[in-house]
């Protein structure tokens, strides 16, 4: 700790100095600082068995050759689902997909994860698919793995807990061991094609223990993690049985990224509750001799490209058809996966209330709710589908006319282009999650608007996006009256106020776009790694006779 305090200032200065080198694609496995101070040699002298042998072995792997041979440092993205574009199929671009594609753009990289297919025969090597300059490496899962890891611990336990819905979590030991088993499987398959200088970036709650598994297999690569969904407060996190094995395993990552400062601070409180944990400088924590850093990196969109897409899509036949079908009705839009966290029931209740208290708006407005089905194998998802369907038919039955349907409800996917045109046509977007990591729909809606005549965004205070899109009409989705009032205000808002609200949000998104998100995260990962490696070397130097307690550097 003394060494840390003494060197803190110069460490940061040195880190900043060398960060530029890292950004232009220097060797990530050995930091610029390591090279500057000759620490690379020192490290390999101390660990003679590590370098050569395994590196040569790895490079003989056929999958490595398929992945591009010895072309230099690669960014290995790991996520549960890998969106391999299949010819002739439309793909829903969720937040994670957009983010990962941005991270891989202009970088040598591989996207590794589950193919989305169930197969009982374990794939010996990941299948390699090249599409549009991205290399995909995918594995299948067995039915049991899918059930216990994906449906089970990930979506019946972690998803509800992290979305503050402890009441919905259904923990079982079988699911827990299935989750750990699949994380081991991912670690084995990843190890088979990993190179020493690869940078690994793991995404989302399915793969929290992956860094621990990789370290246990001896890999010293920089490994970062990003949580796309919210992080609940400490008391809620502690309801997860054996949370230390899962949430505690995040301390094996060099950098753990969150969507908002609130999520980050919730996790900081969790870290500080871990036995023996200490907080260092710059959001760095030391747990059992390991150092991990945390940070907030709000996910974004390709703002300028999305705005262009929407402008063009507004002239498409689909947009024309939608406009014609409205026959003068104003359009309110909701776009969400069918998920209980999205607040769809509350939204329909609020729309119901709006029609009840504002009879002058009946027959003048329609709510278009686009809601692709999701995780349909799970009971809670089937239940929410029933509830939404029943509620919508009640509202339509109650207020509808032969010539007017208050709510148009659609369960199909729309392509990214089609959706952008629909966003542009909508007078108001109703984004009312009860809890959401970020909510990309809110950002896409803003980007899709005509800046001269923009629509109005109504946004839940519980979406991560609310911390950035502060000139939206921010509402509490639990108060139907308030949402109904915001809807009336949005529909009646004069042009100058719509512009005044929309302008700063668009400006913010043009600067804080997805490319910047990826750059900021990767730069922070590089910097974290430099700090950690310099610290370890200094510790070893200051007390040469003591064995290192840093488990990353056995
Ligand atoms: O982060 C949550 C998330 O991964 C989103 O990016 C994505 O839209 C959604 O969940 C997809 O969930 P699933 O892979 O379970 O269908």
Q: What topology does this entry show?
A:
Elements lengths: L1 H22 L8 H5 L2 H8 L4 H10 L1 H5 L8 E7 L13 H10 L4 E10 L8 E5 L2 E8 L1 H20 L10 H21 L5 E5 L6 H7 L6 E4 L7 H4 L5 H4 L8 E4 L2 H12 L5 E2 L4 E4 L2 E7 L6 H11 L3 H10 L3 E6 L8 H14 L7 E6 L8 H21 L7 E4 L5 H10 L2 E4 L8 H9 L7 E5 L12 E3 L4 H13 L2 H17 L2 H29 L12
Parallel strand pairs: 1-2, 1-5, 2-4, 5-6, 6-7, 7-10, 11-12, 11-14, 12-13, 14-15, 15-16
Antiparallel strand pairs: 3-4, 8-9, 9-10
Helix pairs in contact: 1-21, 6-21, 7-8, 8-9, 13-17, 13-18, 14-17, 15-16, 15-19
Please describe what this structure looks like.
- The protein is of the alpha/beta class and 554 residues long.
- The protein has helices spanning 2-23, 32-36, 39-46, 51-60, 62-66, 95-104, 143-162, 173-193, 210-216, 234-237, 243-246, 261-272, 303-313, 317-326, 344-357, 379-399, 416-425, 440-448, 480-492, 495-511, 514-542; strands at 75-81, 109-118, 127-131, 134-141, 199-203, 223-226, 255-258, 278-279, 284-287, 290-296, 330-335, 365-370, 407-410, 428-431, 456-460, 473-475.
- The strands form 2 sheets. The chain has a 10-stranded mixed sheet, with helices on both faces.
- A hairpin with a 4-residue loop joins strand 8 (278-279) and strand 9.
- Helix 14 packs parallel to helix 17 (416-425).
- The relative contact order is 0.12.
- The structure holds 6-O-phosphono-beta-D-fructofuranose.
Defining traits:
single chain, disordered N terminus, binds 6-O-phosphono-beta-D-fructofuranose, disordered C terminus, 10-stranded mixed sheet
């Amino acid at each position: 700790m003394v060494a840390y305090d003494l060197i803190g200032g110069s460490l940061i200065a040195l880190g900043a100095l060398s960060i530029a080198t890292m950004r232009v694609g220097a060797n990530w496995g050995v930091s610029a600082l390591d090279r500057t101070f000759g620490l690379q040699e020192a490290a390999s002298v101390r660990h003679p068995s590590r370098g050569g042998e395994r590196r040569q072995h790895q490079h003989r792997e056929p999958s490595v050759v398929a992945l591009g041979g010895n072309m230099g440092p690669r960014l290995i993205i790991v996520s549960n689902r890998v969106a391999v574009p299949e010819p002739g199929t439309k793909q829903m671009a969720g937040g994670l997909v957009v983010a990962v594609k941005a991270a891989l753009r202009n970088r040598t990289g591989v996207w590794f994860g589950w193919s989305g297919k169930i197969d009982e025969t374990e794939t010996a090597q990941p299948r390699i698919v090249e599409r549009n300059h991205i290399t995909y490496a995918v594995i299948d899962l067995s039915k049991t793995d899918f059930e216990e890891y994906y449906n089970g611990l990930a979506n019946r336990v972690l998803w509800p807990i992290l979305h503050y819905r402890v009441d919905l979590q259904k923990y079982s030991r079988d699911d827990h061991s299935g989750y750990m088993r699949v994380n081991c499987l991912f670690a084995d398959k990843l190890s088979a094609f990993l190179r020493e200088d690869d940078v690994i970036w793991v995404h989302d709650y399915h793969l929290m223990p992956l860094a621990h598994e990789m370290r246990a297999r001896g890999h010293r690569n920089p490994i970062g993690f990003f949580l796309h969904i919210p992080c609940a407060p400490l008391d809620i996190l502690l309801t997860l049985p054996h949370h230390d094995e899962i949430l505690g395993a995040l301390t094996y990552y060099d950098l753990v990224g969150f969507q908002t400062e609130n999520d980050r601070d919730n996790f900081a409180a969790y870290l500080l509750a871990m036995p023996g944990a200490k907080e260092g400088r710059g959001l760095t924590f030391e747990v059992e001799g390991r150092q991990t850093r945390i940070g907030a990196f709000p996910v974004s969109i390709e703002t300028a490209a999305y705005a262009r897409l929407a402008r063009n899509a507004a002239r498409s036949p689909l947009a024309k058809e939608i406009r014609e079908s409205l026959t003068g009705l104003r359009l309110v839009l909701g776009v969400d996966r069918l998920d209980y966290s999205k607040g769809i029931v509350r939204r329909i209740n609020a729309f119901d209330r709006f029609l009840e208290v504002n009879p002058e708006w009946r027959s003048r407005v329609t709510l278009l709710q686009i809601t692709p089905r999701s995780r349909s194998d799970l009971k809670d998802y089937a239940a929410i589908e029933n509830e939404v369907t029943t509620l919508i038919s009640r509202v339509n039955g109650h207020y509808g006319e032969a010539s007017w349907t208050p709510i148009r409800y659609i369960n199909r996917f729309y392509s990214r282009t089609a959706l952008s045109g629909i966003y542009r046509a909508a007078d108001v977007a109703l984004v009312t999650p009860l809890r959401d990591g970020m909510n990309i729909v809110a950002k896409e809606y803003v980007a899709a608007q005509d800046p001269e005549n923009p629509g109005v965004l109504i946004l839940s205070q519980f979406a991560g996006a609310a911390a950035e899109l502060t000139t939206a009409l921010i509402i509490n989705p639990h108060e139907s009256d308030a949402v109904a009032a915001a809807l009336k205000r949005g529909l009646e808002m004069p042009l100058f106020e719509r512009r005044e609200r929309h302008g700063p949000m668009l400006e913010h998104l043009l600067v804080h776009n997805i490319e910047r998100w990826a750059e900021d995260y990767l730069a922070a990962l590089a910097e974290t790694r430099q700090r950690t490696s310099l610290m370890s070397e200094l510790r070893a130097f200051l007390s040469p006779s003591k064995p290192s307690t840093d488990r990353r550097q056995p």
